[in-house]
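[step 3/7] fold_predict: job queued, chain A
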Amino acid sequence: MKKIIKHEYIAPWEKAFDSVLTPLDDFIHRQTTSGILLMLCAVLAIYIANSPWSEAYHHILAIPFTIGIPGFQLSKTLHHWINDGLMAIFFFVIGLELKREILVGELANIKLAMLPIIAAVGGMLVPVLIYISINQEGTALNGWGVPMATDIAFALGALALLGNRIPKNLLTFLIALAIVDDLGAVLVIALFYTETINTIALTVAAILMVVLISCNLGGIRRSSPYIFLGTALWIAMLQSGVHATLAGIFLAFTIPMRPKYNPSSFLSRINEMIEHIKRSYKQDENIVTNDELRSRVRALGDGVLLVQAPAQIMERKMHIPTAYFIIPIFSLANAGIPIDWTSLDNVITHPVSIGITAGLVVGKLIGIAGFSWLAVKLGVTSLPHGLNFKHIVGAALMGGIGFTMSIFIAELGFAHSAEELLMAKTGILLASILAGVSGFIWLFLTADKNREAQPK
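[step 4/7] structure written:
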């Protein structure tokens, strides 16, 4: 009888595990999942904040946590660790996305990038003007940056639910728009939501940035030096007075975007490695006892990593923990809004709530769709193939979903005003619901799934 050679080892429970994990893994990678999970966490936070567990909820968020060694310690509440610590990781991923889009993505070609850039500028400027026109003085004015932001996870999740009713490049347009929007929000936080400055800590942060840039220029591609120096940068930024989450952006821009090998040289190198592996394999087929074979295979694995850009490897690794752990945790910690139904009218009609709701829903619509229309009519740019202004209007409505970044800016702007922070969060939630539902309905009714729409 002919001997059957097994080319792979399958553990006793491996097939059963694969049947469970593979669909789950496929589900996790879908764009809708992050938005759905965010929504569930927001609903859960609101429910807890209005339940008998409300006191326990706020007590847990106020629990102090201290890390470090005697003489060098950081002590903050759980709420602050989430907003200053975990969100720095979120900003790190945003920074990696920004760098990729600027260097090799939708924003790399200035001609193609003009439409989402102009749309994003309009989507930031008009909401701010609407908010300021309603809240012209006092502490309420501190919330002017809140309606600027678009929540990319929610917006893309809502768009993805429409499936083939919309062109795929509408998703691309919204991604590029949201990336520029995030950059604008980061600049606003850095320039306008910074309190007192500690020049010594800021100097240390600047020195660390020089070291990180030197690591990039020196060809260091391993993640460990960047993680260590990035942590030190975060601590320095935390002590400087500039919001610590910006350390994530600064760190991301120092991570190398160029791989060690280009694909051509990698193919040549991998062919050589395979020949070495074949010769080693003939000497001893058992990789456990064959040191040379094991060494060759390990070198092959190193080569596979070196043909990929370190920044893209980090972005891929950090995407799932950020989208499915950090942002939901942030939502749970910040979306807990106590609702007093007897005074709900007063909350909804408060100038801060009105300013944010109008800014996100009306301002984003006018800013994104209006600026896009002007840019196309003036010949500055053109609509991508397959898109028309009905699509742009739908994306503009979706852009009014502010949630994550808007709540984050509200926490900064109203850090010393609990009442106005409550009004701001109420406005954000109301606007996000109105924008998401209206955008979905608009695209569902106007998009034609059977034929490709042409620009008009």
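[step 5/7] annotate
The longest helix spans residues 418-446.
Residues 61 and 78 are 5 Å apart (CA to CA).
exit 0
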